């Protein structure tokens, strides 16, 4: 019965789950703390952008590794949600992302800020993030 309840989450509940996940990432939660947001069979797809020239697909283990790696590159990051939309089991967030660098990158020194415009698409299954697609548009570095 519990599984059936999770398959019929309200749009408001799904939106809150997506927002809670973004806030957890923003608050630099550990991979263990982020794991409850993810379905065991999660796949995150990051489409080409200024930092990644190819499509990258990550499973749960890859996401946890990337989370740890990111903590060595960024001192802080923020996610300003501009718009959100829910359709069925899909949540779309339009976000302005800002990151304070722990290492120099391009022309940006340590302590400098990067800025990007994200479209994040979260597909939920059983109340967890099952598929995530990121379209990240970074300002020049």
Summarize the entry for a quick read.
With 141 residues, the chain is α+β, with helices and mostly antiparallel strands. The chain has four helices and six strands, in the order αααββαββββ.
Structural commentary:
With 141 residues, the protein is of the alpha+beta class. The protein has a single domain, classed as Nuclear Transport Factor 2, Chain: A (Roll), CATH 3.10.450. It is built from four helices and six strands; from the N terminus they run H-H-H-E-E-H-E-E-E-E. The radius of gyration is 15 Å and the shape is globular. The N and C termini lie far apart (50 Å). Residues 1-6 have low confidence and may be disordered.
Major beta sheet, strand line-up: 2-1-6-5-4-3
Tell me, rounded to a whole number, the average pLDDT: 94
Q: Indicate the CATH architecture.
A: Roll
Number of H- or I-type helical stretches: 4
Roughly how much helix do the residues carry, as a percent range? 25-40%
Radius of gyration: 15 Å
Low-confidence stretches: 1-6
CATH topology: Nuclear Transport Factor 2, Chain: A
- Characterize the biggest β-sheet: 6 strands, mixed
Write down the secondary-structure element order: HHHEEHEEEE
Indicate the structural class.
alpha+beta
CA-CA gap between termini: 50 Å
> What is the global morphology?
globular
Total separate domains:
1
Beta content comes to: 35-45%
Report the strand count.
6
What is the class in the CATH system? Alpha Beta
């Amino acid at each position: 019965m519990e599984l059936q309840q999770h398959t019929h989450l309200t749009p408001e509940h799904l939106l809150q789950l997506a927002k809670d996940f973004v806030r957890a990432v923003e608050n630099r939660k550990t991979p263990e703390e982020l794991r409850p947001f993810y379905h065991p069979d999660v796949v995150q797809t990051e489409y080409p952008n200024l930092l990644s020239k190819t499509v990258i697909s990550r499973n749960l283990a890859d996401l946890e590794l990337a989370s740890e790696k990111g903590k060595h590159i960024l001192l802080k990051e923020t996610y300003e949600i501009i718009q959100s939309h829910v359709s069925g089991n899909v949540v779309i967030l339009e976000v302005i992302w800002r990151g304070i660098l722990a290492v120099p990158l391009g022309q940006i020194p340590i302590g400098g800020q990067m800025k990007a415009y994200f479209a994040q698409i979260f597909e939920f299954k059983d109340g967890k993030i099952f598929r995530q697609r990121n379209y990240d548009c970074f300002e020049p570095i």
